[in-house]
Design brief:
Shape: globular
Oligomer: single chain
Strand order of the largest sheet: 3-2-1-7-18
Bound molecules: flavin-adenine dinucleotide
Distance between the termini: 56 Å
Length: 456
């Protein structure tokens, strides 16, 4: 029987553990902070739970347009919201731990290090165990980047892992960083009723996303009273008597009650003993892997944020599953980033799948694009949805759908139809032929496809 040792219990690790055990391996998973990893305990699950409350409040804010009078004082009690966030994360972690145990996986609560080829040590409560293993999967994740000039104190200057200890809504939250994490938290605290300033070193928010989508989000942010400071690079963040002071590199300052640092992530690769087996890091400091999750060392695989391939829970899980299929001789489908779907949980959401417009343009592929504002959709009108659009990309001539963007409420759900089309290489005509409900927001997805029909 093959013995696999997995270091890290996030989606990269636990999904791999379940696949490996199903394929007949003996599996040991070592996790230092709690099964579910950062995904469940500090990052994805908590932030989306917070956003669920914020989304509800944002929706209540549109009630008047739909003829419903709501009292002005509708507000969230942040202490209750944060307690719910943490208890939901804990419950999710417990569920996963129970599933692992039921599947016969040995879970060790400890810190793992590779001691040499085929040997992993696990340290827990002052005791060290040595585990002999046939293969290793590294799924150690990443942690928030900070700066010597912006040190989090867990009270006023916070990383995204620390915000759930807040007992009261910040009077003025300054979010530094306008990537996905920064934009999501800025949107969430704005929806919860805080004054929010978003400090962005780039000229627009969400520089990595579809430009049209980012423009919609920036418009909505400013319309909802958020201050978006573009081309503004943070130099320092300091505590003041009763708040924080953010100083920019050009000397301007912003004062607020709290500051959330969303400066990106650093892979957890230090002190793992990678050198003992010859696992090499790439130029960006991540563990280098191929499309079946192999590292440079024989019998050592890596998955998830520690590889930096695409920092998403879904990708981490897929890399972990692929690694185990490859190791244990099952059919392997190498990772295909051209088919990944992802979502930015701002309000409205931005969901994307397949190739982005920028990637298509850079690749030189001939393509057609159709973009349809949601404001023209009958269901959107009924629901008072004014912002958002559907955009599809298809290969010119063949009409094969290669990517899409949906901006709107619950875009994360609407994108699935486009995701199916991309994954099955459907044509715009096939997409348009599938019935959609009338009236529905998904009608706009089919209509965008219909607009790309060419005589054939
Ligand atoms: C605020 C935020 C929101 C996000 N929202 C989403 C989202 O909505 N959707 C999405 O797809 N992605 C989201 N992501 C990204 C997602 O959280 C990551 O891509 C995902 O966590 C990666 O999973 P992983 O298994 O690689 O690592 P993790 O989930 O970080 O798990 C790694 C685990 O390894 C453990 N570990 C590290 N070193 C050792 C060691 N030596 N011994 C034992 N254990 C060790 C760590 O304690 C950790 O628990 C979000 C990220 C952030 C920051």
């Amino acid at each position: 029987m093959t013995h696999v040792t997995i270091i890290g219990g996030g989606p990269g690790g636990y999904e791999a553990a379940l696949v490996a055990s199903r394929l007949g391996a003996e599996v040991t998973l070592i996790e230092r902070d709690g099964v579910g990893g950062s995904t469940v305990l500090t990052d994805c699950v908590p932030s989306k739970t917070l956003i669920a409350t914020s989304d509800l409040l944002t929706e209540v804010g549109t009630a008047a347009e739909l003829g419903v009078e709501v009292p002005k004082a509708v507000r969230a009690d942040l202490a209750t919201v944060d307690a719910r966030v943490l208890s939901l994360a804990k419950a999710q972690s417990d569920d996963i731990a129970a599933r692992l145990t039921l599947s016969g996986i040995t879970v060790i609560d400890g810190v793992a290090t590779i001691a040499g080829p085929g040997v992993v040590t696990a340290e827990s409560g002052g005791e060290t165990q040595q585990i002999e293993t046939d293969a290793i999967l590294l799924a150690t994740g990443a942690h928030p980047r900070t700066s010597p000039d912006a040190q989090p104190d867990g009270e006023r200057i916070l990383t995204w892992e620390q915000v759930y200890s807040l007992q009261e809504l910040p009077a003025h939250m300054i979010v530094v960083g306008s990537g996905v994490t920064g934009a999501e938290f800025a949107s969430a605290y704005n929806g919860l009723g805080a004054t929010v300033t978003l400090v962005s070193s780039r000229d627009r928010v969400l520089p990595g996303e579809d430009a049209d989508a980012a423009n919609v989000i920036e418009d909505v942010f400013t319309r909802r009273g958020m201050t978006v400071m573009g081309t503004s690079r943070m130099a320092t963040v300091e505590r003041t008597t009763d708040g924080v002071l953010v100083t920019l590199t050009d000397g301007r300052t912003v004062e607020g009650s709290h500051c959330l640092l969303a400066l990106g992530s650093i892979p957890n690769t230090e002190g793992l003993g990678l050198e003992t087996v010859g696992v090499t890091l790439n130029d960006a400091g991540f563990i280098g892997v191929d499309r079946v999750s192999r590292t440079s060392a024989r019998g050592v695989y890596a998955a998830g944020d520690c590889t930096g391939v695409l920092m998403l829970a879904s990708v981490a899980a897929q890399q972990g599953r692929i690694a185990m299929s490859h190791l244990l001789g099952d059919a392997v489908h190498p990772l295909d980033l051209g088919k990944v779907s992802s979502n930015v949980f701002t309000s409205p959401e931005i969901a994307t799948v397949g190739m982005s417009q920028k990637q298509i343009e850079e690749s030189g592929l001939q393509f057609d694009v159709a973009m349809l504002p949601l404001a023209s959709n009958p269901r959107a009108k009924m629901q008072g949805v004014h912002d958002g659009f559907v955009k599809l990309f298809a290969r010119k001539g063949m009409g094969i759908v290669i990517g899409g963007v949906v901006v709107g409420p619950k875009a994360s759900e609407l994108i699935h139809a486009v995701s199916l089309a991309v994954s099955a290489s459907l044509t715009v005509d096939q997409m348009a032929d599938a019935f959609t409900v009338y009236p529905s927001l998904s009608g706009s997805v089919a209509e965008a496809a219909r607009r790309m029909h060419t005589l054939g």
